[in-house]
Amino acid sequence: MVAVPRSGRARAELPHPDVGDIDLLEVLHALSDPTRMKIAQTLCETSERLCGTFEVNVAPSTLSHHFRVLREAGVIWQREDGNRRWTSLRRADLESRFPGLLDQIVDHYEHAGAATSR
Questions:
Q1: 89: helix, coil or strand?
Q2: Nearest CA to 43 among 97, 100, 86, 95?
Q3: What is the CATH number of the domain that holds 84?
Q4: Among 26, 59, 87, 107, which one is least packed by beta carbons within 10 Å?
Q5: What residue numbers bound the domain in which 40 lies?
Q6: Which residue, 51, 49, 44, is CA-closest to 75?
Q7: Is 110 helix (H, G, I), strand (E, B) or coil?
Q8: Element spanning 112, H or E
Q9: Contact 39/79 with Cβ under 8 angstroms?
Q10: pLDDT by residue (tens digit) across 61-105?
Q11: What is the DSSP string of 31-86?
Q12: What is the total count of domains within the chain?
């Protein structure tokens, strides 16, 4: 058996639900956390972003957990590029499954945040 260095091993594909398998309650749960909402809001403003560039105040392991919850709920798509992971919002998939839902949640969250900061 020939040992393959860690850097030469292929990583397992990240799990993403098919569009038809995206569940409303899982999406709502994923977006019920302020950190995950901040990630979603940020992705609404940009098409794709490196995982380490989100302005959230959590430990890297906690951020990984939030990404996993969002990804497994079908809210985000993540792809690997070497040792980097890119994240994008599955806006079209969410819109086809639940028309208007994402915009309503993000708008409500932004207005609620503006109202509490007065």
A1: strand
A2: 86
A3: 1.10.10.10
A4: 59
A5: 16-116
A6: 44
A7: helix
A8: helix 101-116
A9: no
A10: 999 999 999 999 999 999 998 889 999 999 999 999 999 999 999
A11: TTSHHHHHHHHHHHHSS-EEGGG----S-HHHHHHHHHHHHHHTSEEEEEETTEEE
A12: 1
Percent of the chain with pLDDT over 90: 71
Handedness of CA 92, 93, 99, 105 (dihedral sign): negative
User: In the predicted model, what is the mean pLDDT of the chain?
Assistant: 89
Per this entry, what is the length of the chain?
118
pLDDT of residue 116: 60
- Distances 101 to 7, 8, 50, 56, 108 between C-alpha atoms, Å: 41, 41, 25, 24, 11
Query: Burial level of 109, CB count in 10 A (0-12/13-18/19+)?
Result: middle
CB atoms within 10 A of CB 65: 15
The pTM of the full predicted model, rounded to 2 decimals, is 0.85
The pLDDT tens digits for 8-23 are 556 678 889 999 999 9
Looking up tokens 């594909």 gives 13
55 located within any domain: yes
Structure tokens at 42: 């940020």
